């Protein structure tokens, strides 16, 4: 998330890290406005995680905008990135649960 935020020229803030700022920006965007593919989607049963391809997609779309990146575009691509990254996380985690025959996943946030 932080690397994508840097691509969108989100500056560091004393209270929030870039990833958190990206999330706030995404809340105002339309994820359907900037199509991004889900990483490793064609690899059906893998449990691997990789966000480099997703980051590259964002970089290419930002480069296509040139120097005139609107705040709406930033919000839309942030939302699209967040949706694709989350779908990737959920899919790969579900694959891992299936592969290991586990029925329960416990997430702890500290």
From TrEMBL:
Coiled coil: none annotated. Residues 1-108 form the Gcp-like domain. It comes from the Eukaryota. InterPro entries: ATPase_NBD (IPR043129), Gcp-like_dom (IPR000905). GO terms for cellular component: mitochondrion. This is Gcp-like domain-containing protein. It comes from Vannella robusta. The lineage of its organism: Eukaryota, Amoebozoa, Discosea, Flabellinia, Vannellidae.
């Amino acid at each position: 998330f932080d690397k994508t935020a840097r691509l969108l020229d989100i500056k560091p803030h004393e209270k929030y890290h870039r990833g958190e700022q990206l999330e706030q920006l995404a809340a105002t965007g339309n994820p359907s406005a900037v199509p991004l593919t889900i990483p490793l989607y064609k690899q059906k049963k893998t449990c691997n995680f990789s966000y480099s391809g997703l980051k590259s997609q964002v970089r290419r779309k930002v480069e296509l905008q040139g120097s005139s990146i609107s705040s709406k575009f930033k919000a839309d691509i942030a939302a699209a990135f967040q949706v694709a990254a989350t779908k990737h996380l959920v899919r790969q985690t579900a694959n891992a649960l299936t592969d290991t025959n586990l029925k329960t996943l416990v997430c702890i946030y500290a």
